[in-house]
From TrEMBL:
<protein>
    <submittedName>
        <fullName>4-hydroxyphenylacetate 3-hydroxylase N-terminal domain-containing protein</fullName>
    </submittedName>
</protein>
<dbReference type="InterPro" id="IPR009100">
    <property type="entry name" value="AcylCoA_DH/oxidase_NM_dom_sf"/>
</dbReference>
<feature type="binding site">
    <location>
        <position position="189"/>
    </location>
    <ligand>
        <name>FAD</name>
    </ligand>
</feature>
<dbReference type="Pfam" id="PF03241">
    <property type="entry name" value="HpaB"/>
</dbReference>
<feature type="domain" description="HpaB/PvcC/4-BUDH N-terminal">
    <location>
        <begin position="5"/>
        <end position="270"/>
    </location>
</feature>
<dbReference type="InterPro" id="IPR024674">
    <property type="entry name" value="HpaB/PvcC/4-BUDH_N"/>
</dbReference>
<keyword id="KW-0560">Oxidoreductase</keyword>
<feature type="domain" description="HpaB/PvcC/4-BUDH C-terminal">
    <location>
        <begin position="278"/>
        <end position="477"/>
    </location>
</feature>
<dbReference type="InterPro" id="IPR024719">
    <property type="entry name" value="HpaB/PvcC/4-BUDH_C"/>
</dbReference>
<keyword id="KW-0285">Flavoprotein</keyword>
<dbReference type="InterPro" id="IPR046373">
    <property type="entry name" value="Acyl-CoA_Oxase/DH_mid-dom_sf"/>
</dbReference>
<keyword id="KW-0274">FAD</keyword>
<dbReference type="InterPro" id="IPR004925">
    <property type="entry name" value="HpaB/PvcC/4-BUDH"/>
</dbReference>
<dbReference type="GO" id="GO:0016627">
    <property type="term" value="F:oxidoreductase activity, acting on the CH-CH group of donors"/>
</dbReference>
<dbReference type="Pfam" id="PF11794">
    <property type="entry name" value="HpaB_N"/>
</dbReference>
<dbReference type="InterPro" id="IPR036250">
    <property type="entry name" value="AcylCo_DH-like_C"/>
</dbReference>
Length: 484
C-alpha cells in the first residue's frame, strides 16, 4: 500500500509535545495554528498514491515491495538522478516550493547517509549498521523526516562546551540501551508536519565539544522532546482568498528542546565524535544531496514568482514598456540560470562507489547565487507591483457589503482582467512578497543553508582551483619574463 494523505495525517496524532501561544497543542491536525499546513503535507501523500502520479512519484521498496516516494531511491546513473529529479520537481508543484522542508528534503540526506554508511563503519560498525537500519526503516515506512542540525544562536565567541549548561544539545548519560540527551537545537522547520527528527550538527565543533558532537534520529513524539513553535501565520490568515499561500503552506518552525530524551543505540549515528560529525555532511555526499533537493524546490518557486510578476504587468498593461520588459527579461534569465545549474550539477555528476552524485562545485555555486537572488527577485516583484498590492480591499468580507463591493468593482480596473481577478492576483502577490509569511521566506532562503560566509566557504572548498590555475600557469609560461 502506498502511503496516502489520511495515513500521514493520522500518524501525526501521536501525543507529540508541541507548544504555541502558551499552550500545548493537543492535536496538531485540528489546531488552528497548524491544520492547513498538515493538510498540505497530507495532500502530497495523496498525490503520490493517486493513479495519475504513483508511477512518477514512487518506486517499489526493495525492502517491502510496497511503493514509496522516489526521494528514497538511490541513483546509480545520470538517468536515475534525472528520473528522481522529475519526480521531486513534480512533488514541489502542489506547494509551489513554499514547503522548504517538504518530506523529500531530509529523505535525500538520509538516502545519502546510506550511500556513505562505510564512513561510519570505519569508526564503529555499530554506527554504520544504525545508519543502514534507519534508512531502511524510514524508507519502508515512507516517513516524513525533518532535521535540526544547527545550535541555538548565542555568544559566538564561546566554544559550544563553554556555553551555559543545557543550552546546546549534549549527551548527559550513556548506558546499555543508548544515550540520554539534553538541551536545545535552533530550529526544526516542518517539525509539526513530520514523523521523525534527524538530529546532527553541521557547524564546526572543536576539541572539548565532544558531548555536543552527536547525531541520531528520534520520533517527534519521543518522551521529553518539546517543539516550541514560533508564531503561526496560518492562524492569522483570515481566508484563502486573502492569504492564499500563508493560509496553506506555513510549514512551521520551532526550537526543539530535548528534556532528557532517551535515544536507543540503533538510532545513534555519531556518538561524541567531532571528526565523524564533520564527515557526516562534508566527507560524504549528504550535504550535496540535501541541498540539491533545495534547488529542485527553488526552481518551482522561482517560476511561480516569475509568473506572478508577468501577470502583474499584464494586468497593469505595462508588459510592453521597454523598462518593464527588461525587468522581466532579467527575471527570466535568473530563473534560467538556476535551471541551468541544476542540469549542470547533474551532467557533471560523479560516481561515489556504486552511486551517482551531483557535482558539489556547481551545487555550491547555485547555493551562493540563490541566497543572494531570492531577496532580489522579491524586490523585482515589489518594483513591478507598485501600490497595487496595497490598493486592496481589507479582506474578502468587503465583497459581502454591497456599498464596498460596488466601489471595489469600480476601482479595481484592468484591460485584461475583471476586478475580482485583479484583487485575487494582487492579494496573492502581497502574500508572497509582503506578508509576515513572505518575510520569513526571505529569511529562509537567505539562511536555510547557513549564513553567506558559510555557503561561500563551501563554494571556495569545492571549486576546481587546479583546473583554473593550469590555465594561468600555461599562459604565464607562454612568454618570457623580464630580460629573458
Ligand atoms: C526560516 C528559517 C528556518 C530554518 N530551519 C532550520 C531547520 O529546519 N533545521 C535547522 O537545523 N536549522 C534551521 N534554520 C537555522 C539555519 O540553519 C541558521 O539560521 C543558519 O545556519 C545560520 O546560523 P545562525 O542563524 O546562527 O546565524 P549566524 O551564524 O549567527 O549568522 C548571522 C550573521 O552573523 C554574522 N556572523 C556570524 N558568525 C560569523 C563569522 N564567524 N564570521 C563572519 N560573520 C559572522 C554574519 O553576518 C551572518 O550573516 C532555519 C533558519 C531560518 C531563518
Amino acid at each position: 500500500m502506498t502511503k496516502n494523505g489520511s495515513d500521514h495525517v493520522a500518524s501525526l496524532r501521536d501525543g507529540r509535545e508541541v507548544y504555541i501561544d502558551g499552550e500545548r497543542a493537543d492535536d496538531v491536525t485540528t489546531h488552528p495554528a497548524f491544520r492547513n499546513a498538515v493538510a498540505s503535507a497530507g495532500a502530497l501523500y495523496d498525490m503520490q498514491a493517486s493513479p495519475e502520479f504513483e508511477e512518477l512519484l514512487t518506486y517499489e521498496s526493495p525492502g517491502t515491495g510496497d511503493r514509496v516516494n522516489r526521494a528514497w531511491q538511490l541513483p546509480k546513473t545520470y538517468e536515475d538522478l534525472a528520473n528522481r529529479r522529475r519526480a521531486l520537481i513534480k512533488w514541489q508543484e502542489p506547494h509551489l516550493g513554499f514547503l522548504g522542508r517538504s518530506p523529500d528534503h531530509v529523505a535525500s540526506a538520509v538516502a545519502a547517509m546510506y550511500m556513505s554508511a562505510h564512513v561510519y563503519d570505519e569508526i564503529d560498525p555499530a554506527r554504520g549498521a544504525a545508519v543502514r537500519d534507519y534508512y531502511r526503516h524510514a524508507r519502508d515506512s515512507d516517513s516524513f523526516l525533518t532535521y535540526t542540525i544547527v545550535n541555538p544562536q548565542t555568544n559566538k565567541k564561546q566554544a559550544t562546551h563553554e556555553q551555559d549548561a543545557d543550552l546546546t544539545l549534549a549527551v548527559v548519560d550513556e548506558d546499555a540501551e543508548g544515550l540520554t540527551v539534553r538541551g536545545a537545537k535552533m530550529l526544526a522547520t516542518s517539525g509539526v508536519l513530520a514523523n521523525e527528527l534527524f538530529v546532527s550538527g553541521v557547524q564546526p565543533l572543536q576539541q572539548g565539544d565532544e558531548r555536543h558532537a552527536v547525531s541520531f534520529a528520534v520520533p517527534m513524539n519521543a518522551k521529553g522532546l518539546q517543539n516550541l513553535a514560533r508564531r503561526s501565520y496560518e492562524a492569522s490568515a483570515t481566508s484563502t482568498f486573502d492569504h492564499p499561500v500563508s493560509s496553506r503552506f506555513d510549514e512551521t518552525d520551532g526550537v526543539i528542546f530535548f528534556d532528557d530524551v532517551k535515544v536507543p543505540w540503533d538510532r545513534v549515528f555519531v556518538n561524541q565524535d567531532v571528526d565523524l560529525l564533520r564527515k557526516q555532511f562534508h566527507g560524504t555526499p549528504v550535504h550535496v544531496y540535501q541541498n540539491y533537493q533545495c534547488n529542485l524546490r527553488l526552481i518551482v518557486k522561482l517560476k511561480f514568482l516569475a509568473a506572478i510578476a508577468h501577470r502583474i504587468t499584464e494586468i497593469n498593461s505595462t508588459t510592453d514598456f521597454p523598462q518593464v520588459r527588461e525587468a522581466l527579461g532579467q527575471l527570466a534569465a535568473e530563473v534560467g540560470m538556476v535551471e541551468a545549474l541544476i542540469h549542470g550539477m547533474e551532467v557533471k555528476g560523479h560516481q561515489y562507489g556504486e552511486y551517482f552524485v551531483p557535482d558539489p562545485a556547481l551545487l555550491y555555486s547555485s547555493q551562493v547565487l540563490t541566497q543572494q537572488l531570492y531577496p532580489k527577485v522579491i524586490h523585482t516583484l515589489r518594483e513591478l507591483s507598485g501600490g497595487g498590492v496595497i490598493m486592496l480591499p481589507s479582506s474578502e468580507a468587503d465583497f459581502s457589503n454591497p456599498t464596498v463591493a460596488d466601489k471595489i468593482r469600480r476601482v479595481q480596473k484592468s484591460a485584461v482582467a475583471s476586478p475580482d481577478e485583479r484583487v485575487k492576483l494582487f492579494k496573492l502577490a502581497w502574500d508572497v512578497i509582503g506578508s509576515e509569511f513572505a518575510s520569513r521566506h526571505v529569511q529562509y532562503e537567505m539562511f536555510y543553508n547557513g549564513a553567506a560566509f558559510v555557503v561561500r566557504g563551501n563554494a571556495y572548498r569545492t571549486f576546481d582551483w587546479d583546473d583554473s590555475r593550469a590555465l594561468l600557469d600555461d599562459f604565464l609560461g607562454s612568454y618570457d619574463g623580464p630580460l629573458e
